[in-house]
Amino acid sequence: MTGAADKLAERIRGRFGEAVRACKVALGEVTVEIAPERLVEVCTALRDEPELRFEQLMDLCGVDYLAYGDTDWETTEASATGFSRGRGREPEEGPRWKGPRFAVVYHLLSVTHNRRLRLRVFAPDDEFPVVPTVTGVWPSANWYEREAFDLFGIVFEGHPDLRRILTDYGFVGHPFRKDFPLSGHVEVRYDPERGRVVYEPVSIEPRVNTPRVIRRDPHCARTGDAAGEEA
């Protein structure tokens, strides 16, 4: 599997040249970063060329890299892998992520060749993220792109009907953005005096749901730790 993935990565690098900003193989999977201005061209070739033939778009999603690699708490004791969200870091290291904030990820399937491919494209502008639509390449992208627009605020230029698809009418903001409050901006209740549903500012305090404790559990111990030593 890994050999096939390496061959696919080499073929894509050779075929698309400068349109490929990054291409890596990990765990037998190929991930390719594409320049946004070349996205539609590359996707069309991936679909149509006989040696590629990625006929199906299986999934499309938005990603917000705001504070990517950062944590809700700092420690030198927690594991950097597994279930722990703690990760030791020196303060002078600064933010971990230096690139654009928003990206769109595409998962493709070639039925002809029985293989998969992951594409990623970054929106150049963090304040107003825009990438081209691929609905003209894979019509199934229509609702996927509407979902990414609704939840992340990513605009898909050329989309035939870019509207919210999951949130309520009049919803303010994009709930999957990392800076969107967990409690939201408004709460909804039925007002018997008015005889209708009303929207009001949230009445609960913002909070962080990440536990700020180090579990002394042998099942969570790091490699090299004595199992049960501090349980």
What this model shows, in words?
The chain is an alpha/beta fold and 231 residues long. 16% of the residues lie in helices and 25% in strands. The chain contains three helices and nine strands. The strands form three sheets. A five-stranded mixed β-sheet has the order 1-2-5-4-3. It has a two-stranded parallel sheet with strand order 6-7. Strands 8-9 form a two-stranded antiparallel sheet. The longest helix is centred in the first third of the chain and has 15 residues, at 2-16. It is elongated. The two termini are 40 Å apart. 20% of the residues are buried.
Give Rg in angstroms: 22 Å
Strand order of the largest sheet: 1-2-5-4-3
* General form: elongated
Ranges where pLDDT stays below 50 over 5 or more residues in a row are 83-92, 225-231
Beta fraction of the residues? 15-25%
Question: What integer is the average pLDDT?
Answer: 83
- Separation, N- and C-terminal Cα atoms: 40 Å
Write a brief caption for the model:
The protein is elongated. The strands form three sheets. The chain has a five-stranded mixed beta sheet. Strands 6-7 form a two-stranded parallel sheet. Strands 8-9 form a two-stranded antiparallel ribbon. By secondary structure, the protein is of the alpha/beta class.
Give short descriptive properties of this protein:
231 residues; 16% helix; disordered C terminus; two-stranded parallel sheet; 25% strand; alpha/beta
